[in-house]
Specification:
522 residues; 5-stranded mixed β-sheet; two-stranded antiparallel ribbon; 48% helix
Amino acid sequence: MSLKPPKIEMDKQKIEGFLQRAEKSLDPDDFAFVSNLVGTLFFLSGLVEKKASAIARLLRLIFGLKTESSRQILNIEPADAARSERPPAKGHGRNGAAGYPGAMRVPVPNKDHKKGDQCPECLKGKLYPICPETLMRFFGNAPIQAVVYLLEKLRCNLCGQIFTAQKPAEAGEQKYDETAAAMVAVTKYGAGLPFNRLEKLQDNCGIPLPASTQWDMVNESAEKLKPAYTELVRQAAQSDVFFQDDTTSRVLSLNKGGEGDGRSKERKGVFTTGIVCKSEDKTIACFFTGHKHAGENLSDLLKQRFSELSTPIQMCDALSRNMPENLKSIICNCLTHGRRNFVVEINAFPEQARHVIEVLAKVYHHDAVTKEQCMPPEGRLRFHQEKSGPLMDGLKDWMETELRDKRIEPNSGMGKAFDYMLKRWDKLTRFLTVAGAPLDNNICERALKIAIRHRKNSLYYRTQRGAWVGDLFMSFIHTCSLMGVNAFDYITVLLRNADKLADDPGRWMPWNYKQTLPEMPP
């Protein structure tokens, strides 16, 4: 026999009906006792529900979720049985030779035969070249390599004059090659490997590189790349859609109030703002660390925007700090944030949460179709109005009816999830009224992971200068990632052409530097 009592659905209408019937059949004292008992049970049930939701949020905050997909949350089995029985796609899970553009290609000639020879099998045909067979071999090296040149020295046994061999051309003029600085920047600000860890790694590989030397390398490189960074931010300001968000950061000098942007007395918090700026042909990521919030950083960015351009679209969450005064933009709120409230309540309100998640899944499916078909903004808007509009209208009516008929308690977790959606409905559904308006802010949240990874591994910046250097390299590295460009190669090329950047930095952006490079003199 199970000791666990059955769960009682605390429906407010049913409880009121029960109390009305009990009042007629019980004497006043008994009815007062039963009424207080039921009221206490209803109150405790609400507390348990809130605590369960709070615990779910806490667990999610600590451990996170691998995925918030509808299939995972709702435990949906594949609808198509044939699809589940389909054999796995062929492949071994590894990349082919074409997937390694940075690997060295070594042509190996056929020593036994050559082009035009008679076929040794049929003795009639002639051999001709076809696609070569690929053979791959991987090697391990320290991230930063070093070469020691031993210049032969000869001394005259009579006069004592010393004659030293000339330095080879490949030795270069500087001790540290541009590729070394680029590699330190990519490992530190792209992969989140702190200077001290890279120092230990280099030492284990027999090529010591002190952390202080690494900082000197990236600090000097950042100064050389400043014109390109300024131009990158300027071009980002001309974009059509701006995704913004921020995360906490730590800069020791700012936390002590020793330096900053003039806000240290009125605001102690330090943040790293990520702004992903998207236009028709390019996507740019910009990072800013300091006392300013995301909205304030976006306002500063848009001061560089050409006045003749149309009003930009701003995608952010519903926090007030993301929307400062005097910022003219078409504001969109993140639909994923609204959906997340229902994901948290899936156990307390399974039917209602499931309904909302399923409706939004259809909307996201429609958006995926627009991306697959590469629809222009106007075509995407019409498609969503036709396919997603009725779904969202029906969802809004359903939520309002649930609250109006008191089937959902307004102060419950589900009631608050409804309230969040309904209060921000116009901003959450901007994709139904404005061409090019996105559904969510996921692209910016993914961009901020590069700053979060750096914060988790390196813990802090020591000075505001260090934070600026980090922002510069993170902006370059993540923009290259968004544009499908090799960040290491890009930073190396910029450093090797640093003397030409100031003349025309617009020609040295991640999307056009390869076209500019052949035009430069050797």
